[in-house]
């Protein structure tokens, strides 16, 4: 799901 | 991680180092907006809620801790340190920053990637970061003598935003599934806010004259 994209930015 | 992203993080880090240098070594926060610094502390607190839940990388964790610790310590210095706080230009730092917080929270409740506490707080932090520089830009406009460190601080912050946009463009083409529209739109708005400052900063640098923003 789109919401599962890891937010790896600061 | 691509080169734009790394360069963006490094200029962001550099901006914090420049500000801490000014505060810690010169014991001055003249020309620095406490309102903007308080907003940044709130931005990082809201965004890094997953710090101890989701491990991404050592780099990621360390950088998050650095931004959290530095933003809160800058606020502490400006409010509590007996020498630094006297240099704070309170009379010109009058932007009503509290009025930025509620609209950003409302927007985050309406527009988010998923209606969960953490996702709403993440969107809130993105929206708030986009406008958090406004009190600082207003204060710069009212400051007659912008010292070099203050000018460099804002310049590095703006450079970090430009580099993040280049990083998104790069990721868009190399990682097709990577699309965070919320951060893109808010990030572009945020970068545009610096356009005016950049113009005068580069002009003053080119002509070798002291930076001054027209009121």
UniProtKB/TrEMBL annotation, chain B:
Predominant subcellular localization, coarse grouping: endoplasmic reticulum
A GO MF label: ER retention sequence binding
InterPro entries assigned: ER_ret_rcpt
This protein's GO CC annotations: cis-Golgi network; endoplasmic reticulum; endoplasmic reticulum membrane
Subcellular location: Endoplasmic reticulum membrane
Biological processes, Gene Ontology terms: protein retention in ER lumen; protein transport; vesicle-mediated transport
UniProt cross-references to PROSITE patterns, sorted A to Z: ER_LUMEN_RECEPTOR_1 (PS00951), ER_LUMEN_RECEPTOR_2 (PS00952)
Membrane topology according to the record: Multi-pass membrane protein
Regions crossing the membrane: 52-78, 99-115, 121-140, 152-170, 182-202
Keyword Endoplasmic reticulum belongs to the record: yes
PANTHER family given in the database record: ER LUMEN PROTEIN RETAINING RECEPTOR
Protein family according to the UniProt entry: Belongs to the ERD2 family.
Record-given protein name: ER lumen protein-retaining receptor
């Amino acid at each position: 799901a789109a919401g599962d994209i890891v937010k790896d930015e600061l | 991680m691509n080169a734009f992203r790394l360069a963006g993080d490094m200029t962001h880090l550099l901006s914090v180092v420049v500000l801490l240098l000014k505060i810690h070594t010169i014991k001055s926060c003249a020309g620095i907006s406490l309102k903007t610094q308080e907003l940044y502390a709130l931005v990082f607190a809201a965004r890094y809620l997953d710090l101890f839940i989701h491990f991404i990388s050592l780099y990621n964790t360390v950088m998050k801790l650095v931004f959290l610790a530095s933003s809160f310590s800058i606020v502490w210095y400006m409010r509590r340190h007996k020498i630094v706080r006297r240099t704070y230009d309170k009379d010109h730092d009058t932007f009503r920053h509290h009025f930025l917080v509620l609209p950003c929270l409302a927007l985050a409740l309406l527009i988010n990637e998923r209606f969960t506490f953490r996702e709403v707080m993440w969107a809130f932090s993105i929206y708030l970061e986009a406008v958090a520089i406004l009190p600082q830009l207003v204060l710069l406009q009212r400051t007659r003598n912008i010292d070099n460190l203050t000018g460099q601080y804002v310049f590095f912050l703006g450079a970090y935003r430009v580099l993040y946009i280049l990083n998104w463009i790069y990721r868009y083409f190399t990682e097709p599934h990577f699309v965070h529209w919320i951060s893109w739109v808010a990030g572009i708005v945020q970068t545009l806010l610096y356009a005016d400052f950049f113009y005068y900063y580069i002009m003053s640098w080119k002509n070798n004259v002291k930076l001054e923003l027209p009121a």
